[in-house]
Structure formats: C-alpha cells, structure tokens
Specification:
It is a single chain. It is built from 3 helices and 9 strands; from the N terminus they run αββββββαβββα. By secondary structure, it is an alpha/beta fold. It has one domain: Chloramphenicol acetyltransferase-like domain (Chloramphenicol Acetyltransferase). The two termini are about 15 Å apart.
C-alpha cells in the first residue's frame, strides 16, 4: 500500500509542483525538479523517513521493490544519509495501524506532508440518491503557507483523490 500511495502522491506532485517546494533557511524557497517522497517508518527507538527517489517516474513494481529495500535498511540501521535526507515531500501512513485520522507534523525545510488514515467501509449516496458501501480513506496535508497556499493544496488533493480512485492510472 505504501508504494501505491507514494506513486499516487508523486503523480499528483508532478501536476502540482508548488506542493513539492522547499524552504531550507526560512527565507529562500526553491521548486524541486525531482519528486522524492519520504515515507515515515517506525523503527526501534524512533522514526526515520526513507526516500523514494523520483517516485513519479518509477513504475509501481520498481517503487515497491525499492520501498522493501529501504524499509529493510531502515530497520537494520543501514540507511545512508542520501536515503533519508533528500525528501521533497513526506507521506505518513498511520492507516496501516488502524488510525483513521491524524495530523502530521511538517518536517523542517519541506513544503508539505500528507497524513493518510485507514481505509474504512462507509455508507455513501451516489448522484441518483442510491446508497452503497464504499471504502473511504481520510487524507490531509500540513503545509508551510509561506510556500504553498491552501488553494494549491486543494487542487493537489483533488488530483491525488482522482488517482487513488482510478488505480489503473498507477500502472501506466
């Protein structure tokens, strides 16, 4: 699931590059040419964020293989600095622990972080008023508003939702 979410985020960031921006010193802002999605991983004694480099460009299979490798290195404390300090956007997924909603804290220097909650069955009505049960996942983004405006985040989240709701696009 992590690779799918990172791929979806990478694809959405490619369409909304301002959300992938950084502010390293509190004064100067930069728009990153690479989309490097850092993903929070719980390890013994803390948390680390291994980075999936060029998450928008790698196919899902390679991304999932890379993720498996990075998690293994993280848990054995074998990550090299470039494997955890080069993120341009962070993804925190507590949904895998059954948490349905939370707020993620923005890492220093990054423009935004996405918090992903658990997918849960929810009763929804379609446009004709018919009810059905669909899985829904709550997602929110914390951002540095000196870099990213709320309207930009809304557009990014709309794109992310479309990608996640149409997973066929993740395999292209």
């Amino acid at each position: 699931m992590t690779a799918l979410l990172a791929k979806a985020a990478g694809m959405a960031l490619a369409q909304h590059p301002v959300v992938n921006a950084s502010c390293k010193d509190g004064k100067s802002f930069s728009y990153n040419s690479n989309i490097n999605v850092a993903v929070a991983v719980a390890i013994n004694g803390g948390l680390i964020t291994p980075v999936l480099q060029d998450a928008d460009k790698l196919d899902l299979y390679l991304l999932s293989q890379k993720w498996k490798e990075l998690v293994g290195k993280a848990r054995s404390k074998q990550l090299q600095p470039h494997e955890y300090n080069s993120g341009t956007f962070t993804l925190s997924n507590l949904g895998m622990f059954g948490v349905d909603r939370f707020d993620a804290i923005l890492p220093p220097g990054q423009g935004a972080i996405m918090a992903v909650g658990a997918s849960k069955p929810t009763v929804v009505a379609d446009k004709d008023g018919f009810f059905s049960v669909k899985n829904k996942m709550l997602v929110n983004v914390t951002a540095d508003h000196r870099i990213v405006y709320g309207a930009d985040l809304a557009a990014f989240l709309q794109t992310f939702a479309k990608i996640v709701e149409n997973p066929d696009s993740l395999t292209l």
